[in-house]
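Dear colleagues,

For the upcoming journal club I promised to circulate an example of a predicted protein-ligand complex. I picked one with alpha-D-psicofuranose because it came up in last month's discussion. The inputs are reproduced below in full, followed by the predicted structure.
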Amino acid sequence: MGKGSSGSGAGATERVFAALDGFRIEVPSWGFANTGTRFGKFSQAGAATSLEEKFEDAGQVNKLTGASPSVALHVLWDLPNGKGDVPELKRLEKKYGVKSGAVNPNLFQAQEYKYGSIANPSAEIRKHAVAHLLDSVEIGKALGNKDVSIWLADGSNYPGTQSMLKRIEWLEEALGETHAALGPKQRMLVEYKPFEPAFYHTDIADWGMALNLARKAGPKAKVLVDTGHHLPGCNIEQIVTWLLHLNALGGFHFNDRKFADDDLTLGSIDPYQLFRIFHEILVSDSPAVKGIAYMIDQSHNLKGKMEAMVQSVMTAQELFAKAALVDQAKLAKLQQSCSLVDAEEVFRGAFWTDVRPMVKEWREAHKLPSEPLEALKKGGYMEKINKERGAKNANSGSSYA
Ligand code: PSV
Ligand code: MN
């Protein structure tokens, strides 16, 4: 979507249709499996128990929404045999009509990563971690030039116990090596997070650090913004604007937060924020816009996983559609003349427009269910998976008592 001038009213449906035609959002494989908190795990009868079931669920979300044609993969959780699992992935892609998406290396579970992975003081451990990154690049290539999406848990918990400076150098070295292995059409996305699991310093804590590391690594490295990974009050849309301006925005992990990295349904706490982010993207002329990978990063412990995912895709579409209704030409004039209230009314007016009837029309025009959540409830899919997977999930909860 380029710059446009028509607002809500005449032309609104066209704008919403054009916006939705160009909007796709990737779902995470880990959003369909049983997960929990560090206090325990609550199992759901219908949760996916295998890679095939994750693809089956993702395929169902895409059938209902028409907007989520790919599923992000977490290497250790989904591909225990690394590249060896690629033929199976290709079979699943065909069978369920969804493609493999971003490849997420896992550098936070192995015991050896207790003090870090690519920023670990041990050269040997860093070497293992880099080898995993390189394997992930190869998996991405074998799957058709997929983005390698890197998030690190690296950091420390006690002041003075680690050299932050040395760790910067180790990160630069490892990410540079990984970048050098990327195929011509592959990208490396660098994700940041201010804290958790590290509670004193995190090696890639914010967008400045992620951006510097990405730039140092090379032109195929971009920054990934996870909306849950910011300290309270942070102006995320301003970060997005900067990253667009610098042609350094690679993608998003969407979820919402009230306190920290809560993995709440996108738009459930602050839908206006996501609208503001989408607005900055829609007014931008940055070449980065074309490459933005929109992804959901949510794993619901309490809500039904299928319902949560369908609801999230629908909410993202609605907020994107609202942002497409901002009368950009009018807003630009009002910004220039500092007509604050009028400018804000144009902006807010789009946010408060009920786009649901137009989104429904878009679905009907594309022969999709006009109410995906209702269709999910009535279609029998959840009963089917509860029945098929119930026994497998019966003992999958956990308790620390
Ligand atoms: C870390 O909190 C994160 O946002 C990273 O993207 C991980 O890959 C994902 O969550 C899944 O745990
Ligand atoms: Mn994330």
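Two points we might discuss: Confidence is low (pLDDT under 50) at residues 1-8. The first helix runs from residue 12 to 21.

See you all on Thursday,
B. R.
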